[in-house]
Amino acid sequence: MIFARAERRALRAAGGIALGFVLAFVGVATVVLLSHADGAGAPLLDAYTWRVARFTLLQATLSTVLSILLAIPVARALARQRAFPGRVWLLRLSAVPLGLPALVAALGIVEIWGRQGVVNDLLRLAGLASPVSVYGLTGILIAHVFFNMPLAARLMLAALDRIPAEYWLTAANLGMGGGATFRLIEWPVIRRVIPGIAGLVFMLCAASFTIVLTLGGGPAATTIEVAIYQALRFDFDPPRAVLLAFLQIAVTASLLSLGTLLGRPPEEGMTAGRAIRRFDGRRRRPADALVLVLFTLFTAAPLAATVASGLAADFGRLALDPLLHRALVTSLAISFSSASLSLAIALPIVLVPPLAGAADSGTATRLMARALPAMGSLILLVPPVVVATGWFLVLRPFGETGRFAPAVITVINAMMALPFVVRVLEPAYRTHLARTARLALSLGVTGRHRLRWIDLPALRKPFLTAFAFAMALSLGDLGAVAIFGAEGFVTLPWLLFSRMASYRTADAAGIALVLGVLCLLLTLPSTAADRRRQGPADA
Amino acid sequence: MPDIAIRLSGVTVRFAEKQLSFDCAIPEGAAVAVAGPSGAGKSTLFNVIAGFETPATGSVTLLGKDMAGRDPADRPVSIVFQDNNLFAHLSVADNVGLGIDPSLRLDAAARQRVFAALSRVGLGGHERRLPGPLSGGERQRVALARALVRRRPILLLDEPFAALDPAMRAEMAKLLSELTAETGSTMLFITHQPEDIRRLAERVIFLEDGAIVLDEPAEDFLSRRAPPAVARFLGHGPV
């Protein structure tokens, strides 16, 4: 019994509202999709659809394999070299892609790997005639590796850092060489975390929209999500969009059930105990330095290119562009409201399940305690583009869909952020409850007062982290906007996308810099704090 | 007069906030207890001998050879820690086998040696098991079996009994003195228990504030009433 009676009533009501709202929002979209599926079917399951489905899985598989294979040497080098100038900055750099909007990253990658980019300049210098093309499968893979390889490397590094310090001393005392160290110590640990990481990366890549939209080349390199967008916005072919939407749900559903088999991605919490010292570090220094320099170049070059070409943009003119002002205001308003909504929906998801622990909790409470967390991940099953498609079809009969765009996009963005928000708040709240719940109840500090004096002060930091993450996610989102994008409704990513599409590259670079800096300002403080936290909450 | 197994002369180790210095000569075949308050430098002394720590000055001579520039694996030293001596994902036999070949390529004769060492420490039949389900005492005995097959003349034990209950401590001590008698190894062990000294040690090295303050036969040490740190250690003095 950790809540007063009135508190329990209020929480149950909040849970019911949140559940009803989200289910209705997704439900309406799905029902409308189903009703439009009339007449769709066999003739639409044509060669094109299959090719799109095949490519979706192919690029996701290759992206996952590449990200994991390349992350292993990076993680090993970082684990081995424990003290060199700039190690902390390298770790911070590896957290940057996570907080960067996909569109900004795509632009940076084109600057480096594109026809006019540094890589092709070097290749031409080396005497190679035919340049590497960044559009198509190659570009998609580069971008996905850019996003996911540093993430995989960080998660592997955390696993390697959890190896007991004595192992390294024993290995040095026994005289294990590099090969034996990998085979007997490192690989068994890495092998255990690979399924979880691979599941996560595959899921992210299979549902990748922006990267494929900007770097994919034509029908040969299109994923289901992008095909939905094209069917809806270019071919005006709702039945095909509906069919593709269901294909996408089928794919994510099977991936999610596969994911439960593979297990959750590993936590990043750090180990306590004896400080780790690696005696194989000295011998491997040149090789590790090479790996880490290549890693730094690969990760930092697109960022540097974004900054460099962004700074070269004509900011004086951009600053006076009324369209940019409107986009900025719209984006900030949408991201602020969607982050607020996301937190409001997340609260019952986090608060209600502990209610069900009480012996006298009713069936309804227990059902709700199970349904709410599942609801938090609903957007993984029904991706944003699919929900947006449903609502596009709902609202079309009511005239210009652009009018409703802000509301729908706000809700979709809030749901996109929900899994992250819950993952930040849930462990923090669980720890907080274990520390304070009984004491607060015995003192009679309940309801409003408990919220005011006990819960909010203690949970301010995870709240801010979750809010900032949700806001950044919404700020950088292109998927939902692309489906609804209309004259008179412009967000920053949409403006950036249309400037890129109309080859106004200088403007695009300037906008990308603004967007990238905004998102990093929101996400970097929390990822830096994440590394400092020494994980008692995760233990 | 036996030869000197371990000689530290003018060895200093510098850390950010303090400096440690070690001078000692330990005869071959001796069983030496290393004692002293927490933070006195006991583990650092072991790290210097094992090659995990490079001294700023002075020389480390093991069995008459200067150890400057020698990797931990190239020193005549085996080391056993309080915990985590065994790789949890490798079988007991593989953990011991690493003492013969660190890349674990073992022929039939090597396997035979592993089996013999395990039955010597009383763990015959446990070869294929993983370390996880074993008791703390059993895990320590596996680590001893590995030291046995490595055949290094110097054995360093960093609080080998700390995680064991009293009955197991006595058993381990008995096994250790038998093993060192058989192999003629020089053994140093860190301990916080006067009991372990009574059971096992011929000599005692006592450290305080980063220096060796006493190096004497065990019976002399055990009858001391001073200095205060020693009295506290032995449980005589005011706490």
TrEMBL record, chain A:
The keyword Transmembrane helix applies. Keywords: Cell inner membrane, Cell membrane, Membrane, Repeat, Transmembrane, Transmembrane helix, Transport. Signal peptide: none annotated. InterPro entries: MetI-like, MetI-like_sf, ThiP_ABC_transpt. Belongs to the binding-protein-dependent transport system permease family. PANTHER family: MOLYBDENUM TRANSPORT SYSTEM PERMEASE PROTEIN MODB, THIAMINE TRANSPORT SYSTEM PERMEASE PROTEIN THIP. This is Thiamine transport system permease protein ThiP. It comes from Shinella pollutisoli. The lineage of its organism: Bacteria, Pseudomonadati, Pseudomonadota, Alphaproteobacteria, Hyphomicrobiales.
UniProtKB/TrEMBL annotation, chain B:
It comes from the Bacteria. Signal peptide: none annotated. Pfam families: ABC_tran. Residues 6-234 form the ABC transporter domain. The keyword Membrane applies. GO terms for molecular function: ATP binding. Keywords: ATP-binding, Cell inner membrane, Cell membrane, Membrane, Nucleotide-binding, Translocase, Transport. InterPro entries: AAA+_ATPase, ABC_SmlMolc_Importer, ABC_transporter-like_ATP-bd, ABC_transporter-like_CS, P-loop_NTPase, Thiamine_ABC_ThiQ. Belongs to the ABC transporter superfamily. NCBIfam families: thiQ. This is Thiamine ABC transporter ATP-binding protein. It comes from Shinella pollutisoli.
